[in-house]
Amino acid sequence: MTKRALICGISGQDGSYLSRFLLGKGYEVHGSARDAQVATFTNLSRLGIHDQISFHSMALNDFRSVLQVLANVQPDEIYNLAGQSSVGLSFDQPVETLESISVGTLNLLEAIRFMKLQTRLYNAGSSECFGNTGGQPADENTPFRPRSPYAVAKATAFWEIANYREAYNLYASTGILFNHESPLRPERFVTQKIVRSACRIAGGAVEKLKLGNIEIARDWGWAPEYVEAMWMILQQERGDDFVIATGETNRLEDFVAEVFRCVGLDWRDHVESDASLLRPSEIMVSRANPEKSARILGWQANYGMKDVVRMMIEEFM
């Protein structure tokens, strides 16, 4: 029988690539937005799949709204990718960030429990929850030490998922994803900001790229293959949590240098430091141990940072 998936946060980078992936698997794909009648779903149109998806208006912070949509769709799988998604913005909007992520996740869990659905729930976790690990690779057993409102919200959602899995025997899993990029990223994300700026400069634009701390180090992967890991997580016999990452960490300076190298420029001629872009608290080194996902899911990243840079640039040059 055809499986039915509901993607909350379908308009974003991950929701769009996941939609394409699930359609390729023969799924009936449904997506939610706060007001689906006025949402543009630009990324879905960009991927050429907009007309293959059924859309629903749902406010995740409104329990009645969640109940209505779940009763209507009766999904086999729910992918919760919704909520405020910017770490930087979360410092300016901490209340919105916490409510959109933690309350939204709780409402989905409660709706599944209340309606006694056999739905499998995937929760989008984040490597930001780990905070600073002293340079040690983080795995599923590494303690959380969140350093941003976004990370606090994601940590809350993670423990909600774990609690409902244990207390109510719900099938609920979290993918703890490290940074993953693509051309669908909004320009408020630093990787897209760097790529777009470098491409404009290479095309003759007179501008300076302003960045905050370029000494930070991250594990950058390719978003289209990370959504496959999300699906694989929900195909396991029981709910569980998995770190999804490349296992390769690079400094932001290295990312910047590679972008400008690919467009034939020296980054040092075009980048300026801007203290206003520094965060109140920052994770200096983010490092992952994705051994469990390789061993149990059979998933490994095929693309590293330099591949990500190349593929993002190809989209705009």
Overall description:
The protein is α/β, with parallel strands linked by helices. The protein has helices at residues 13-24, 42-46, 63-73, 87-90, 94-115, 149-167, 190-202, 223-233, 252-262, 291-297, 305-316; strands at 4-8, 28-33, 54-57, 77-80, 120-126, 172-177, 180-181, 209-211, 217-218, 221-222, 241-244, 250-251, 271-273. The protein has a seven-stranded parallel beta sheet, sandwiched between helices. Strands 7-10 form a two-stranded parallel ribbon. Strands 8-13 form a two-stranded parallel ribbon. Strand 1 (4-8), helix 1 and strand 2 form a beta-alpha-beta unit. The model has no long low-confidence stretch (mean pLDDT 95).
Q: Give me the CATH fold name of the largest domain.
A: Rossmann fold
| Largest sheet: spatial strand order | 3-2-1-4-5-6-11
**Ends distance:** 43 Å
CATH architecture of the largest domain: 3-Layer(aba) Sandwich
Number of discrete helical segments: 11
Query: What ranges have pLDDT less than 50 throughout 5 or more consecutive residues?
Result: none
Proportion of residues in helical segments: 40-55%
- Main pleated sheet: 7 strands, parallel
H/E element string?
Answer: EHEHEHEHHEHEEHEEEHEEHEHH
CATH class of the largest domain: Alpha Beta
How many distinct domains?
2
Shape: globular
The CATH superfamily of the largest domain appears as NAD(P)-binding Rossmann-like Domain
The total of beta strands comes to: 13
Summarize the structure.
This protein has 317 residues and is of the alpha/beta class. It has helices at residues 13-24, 42-46, 63-73, 87-90, 94-115, 149-167, 190-202, 223-233, 252-262, 291-297, 305-316; strands at 4-8, 28-33, 54-57, 77-80, 120-126, 172-177, 180-181, 209-211, 217-218, 221-222, 241-244, 250-251, 271-273.
